Amino acid sequence: MNRILITGAAGKIGNTLREGLRGRYGVLRLSDIAPLGPARDGEEITTADLTDLASVEAAMKGVDCVVHLGAIPGEDTWEKILPNNIVGTWNVFEAAHRQGVRRVIYASSHHTIGFYRRERVIDQAVPPRPDGIYGVSKVFGEAVGRLFADKHGLSVACLRIGAFRDTPTDRRLLYVWLSPRDTVHLVQCCIDAPDYHFIVVYGISDNARSGYRNKGLEFLGYKPQDKAEDYAAEIMREPDTEDAISRQFHGGIYPPMDFDGDISRIE
Hints:
This protein is of the alpha/beta class. The chain has a single domain (about 5-265), classed as NAD(P)-binding Rossmann-like Domain (Rossmann fold, 3-Layer(aba) Sandwich), CATH 3.40.50. About 30% of the residues lie in helices and about 15% in strands. The protein is built from seven helices and nine strands. The chain has helices spanning about 10-20, 55-60, 80-100, 135-150, 175, 180-190, 230-235; strands at about 5, 25-30, 45, 65-70, 105-110, 155-160, 165, 175-180, 200-205. The protein has a seven-stranded parallel beta sheet with strand order 3-2-1-4-5-6-9, sandwiched between helices.
């Protein structure tokens, strides 16, 4: 893997990867519609609108691996999610296939399974259970990744990222926190790992309270270094501010958004 393309490189995770991966590969090609500043040693800067397939394909030329972060990063309207998270993700995989890219690392989300109850420990084999429009868009992206792996031979990793923060700041984050350092380590493991076909990985730090399990992925070599429990004593001294629905589900504040169902029917 010599030339790595990062879409959505101007975002929080994108900036973290830009700093953390710089110098580890021959070239980091950074793409966004937002300003990225001047290219530094070992970097290339390109502007690509993910809704424009030709633009995305141009950004893919000569690329070995794509880290696809570009998207609306949280719950929003369908009118915004559709072009950015649905059309844009399809274009990334299609452009990667057309340009002979070997591997795509897709930034999915734990909101793909956000409507599972928090006391339930889950692995990658559970059916999707999205908790909103954003989660639906990430389920779509995982399905597209599976299609392009099976039909076109791309090597695909879907990272169900938890809550990316510098530190955990509330009780839910003790379950789902992903630190910047562990983010860089996880993405690098997925770039460098021996050949794999299609994998789904929960992107979390070493959280003792986590309800997620990555089964059969020891070959990745992902060993998170940061522990949410280091912050637990301070967090637990503060009042629990989660509402009655949020605290029951992995998705936190997402399940109660626009909720008008019968919570007792959600097993």
